[in-house]
Amino acid sequence: MERRARTIGYMETWDGIFKRSMRNKNRRFISLVTLLLGLRGLYGLPEGSESITGGGSFTSSADGNKMTFTAPDGSIFSHGSFNVQSGETVQFVQPGANARVLNRITSSSASTIDGRVEANGKLYFAAPGGLIFGEGSVIQARHLQAVAGSVNESNWDQTPQFSGTIENRGKITADTIIMGGKTVTNQGDLSAGNGSVLLVAGGGMEISSQDGSRVVQISDNLQTSESMAGDLYGHALLESGILEASDVQVTASSVTHKGTITSSKVIFSELTQLSGNDGTIHASELVLEGKASRFPDVSLGGKNNQISKVSLNGSFNDVKIRSAQMMQLQSQVGSDMEQTSTVQIQKGDFRTDSGNLSLSISFSPISTVLDSSMVLAAKTGSIEVANRDSLQNYGQVLVYGNNVMEEVATGFPELDEDWYVLNATSLDFDSLSPGLDAKSIFLLEDENPSLNLTGTDLITGDTTTEQSPQSNDVPMLSGSGSGDSGVSTGSGSDTSVGSNLIAPSGTPSLGDLVSITSTGNRLSESQLASVMSVGLYSDHSYLLQSMSADEYTLIQLAEAGGTGLLFGGSFDTVGNDRSSNAEASSPDMDSEAGGNDSESDDGSGDDQSDKAKNTDDPTDSQEAKTATMIKRVMIGSAPLSPITRPVFSPLVNQMLEQALTPKVEETLKGFSTR
After folding, report:
1. Phi and psi (nearest 5°) for 351?
2. What pTM did the predictor assign?
3. Cβ atoms of residues 447 and 426 within 8 Å
4. 331 near 324, Cβ under 8 Å?
5. What is the pLDDT of residues 44-84, one digit of tens each?
6. Which residue of 54, 60, 105, 668 has the smallest Cβ count within 10 Å?
7. β-strand 57-60 against 66-70: which pairing, if any?
8. How crowded is residue 606: how many other Cβ atoms within 10 Å of its Cβ?
């Protein structure tokens, strides 16, 4: 009996253990289901949805991957969350393309959309916690307005207030795209076709219409101080994404542009800073509107920019804009400054890689006490300035174009003494800067033999004593105050040679700084750079004559292998830049040599030997090298080529299509008929 009792006791014990185990398993199962439902709420289709206004409704598909909202015009839906996973779709069915539906998202966390959202009408989002459109997201609507904040239920368009951030990494397509938040980031594709894209970053925005144009202003209502809106908020970050529309407007205090914008008109407004050297802009017109009394810095120095016209409104501290094509500068049409046609820029740098640079406005520095500079440069084109006199308001000016000698320089009624008019076909276009650098000074001296800016006699050890005047051989525009101007050749007793060189006060002795130990009478490049770094030549301005577009094209062909490229290969008869065979290959040079036989017989062989040594001298001027390269192009092909019907190579076809002017193209095509 005792043994049976013990057995029954054991059975009861195992039964209790089994029951407890089942209860724990059920608890774990219930917890897992709860967790899955919670995750579904976090990452699945919209949750907590209800129709607030307009009598709309919604349904879900059997597989749970699609949610359809039927939305009459003016409908408002409220959502606890609006998350769409990859592979899921949210569709809004509206009565027409102009029907509107507003989605208010009450979650304080950002809503993430990685799937598809489709609407056949106008789609609005108001999400105080922010909105993130993921890399795989696809949004399609007639009109999309995504606001990381709140909107006025009686007017969804004009006065939204921002409290969160907007990020786009996906593809959004609509006739009109408006995105607004404290910060706005685009790494994806915003495509509006012939419509418009508007990105606004700040405390809020106010949209109004003026003369048929949309006017957007940043509202700072949510900030505790006026400065915070510009210093902490209002940042638009356009990274590796693409903005494509007929009209693109970015309204923000600070803009970083690293992507691509393609539009007929691009507007940056309310600016305090625009950084875009790593981005690309293709636009017929670029409009820059600075924030009042903030003096913005603008840097759009990308080599791939294609900007036809730049319209400016406001006062700017520093503006750098580069275009691969011809560019025109003007004041913004309809602005207050259009009446005066003068724009204040403390430091300006405008340059084109191809075509002309023209200015229909005047520039003036904000302050003449602080450093001011203006660079106007056209790599292969001309510089057209409406008011040349206004340039003399700047501390340093650099004008670089192929019409400087004939038009720009002669158009000045009078020039200050520290302005230089020089040939500059040897300078590197990318390294042009106000005041130039030491390397550029040396190149200018090689190209302009009468120029002397590197002689050691120009430097003294006294920081307060006037230094020796420059040589009268320096080419200068002589200004006598009578209104006549001309280029000084360095001959005669002309004394209009520029200002005396004065060492900047308060600096170390320039003589000690340079530490000249060589026996030569010329500073080295590093020595010149040292004294320039403390102010030497800091008041010099330069009018620089570049080469013509035709000459530049020939140089490019020479660097690529000569005109033999036109025949699909190289038929160059010149060994190197200094080869005497190059000159011997020219019929003109042969006849010239024949005419000098008598001189050789008269014992002039030593002179000829000296000339040969000079030819091989590594200090040959860049001007001679350039001339030789052009000569190589001119003589390097057809006469010795056995081909009677040449065929253009693919490389040259591409160059002709992209780089050559019609005139040069026709000239080069003429080779194929010989």
Report:
1. -150, 150
2. 0.71
3. yes
4. no
5. 799 999 999 999 999 999 998 999 999 999 999 999 999 99
6. 60
7. antiparallel
8. 8
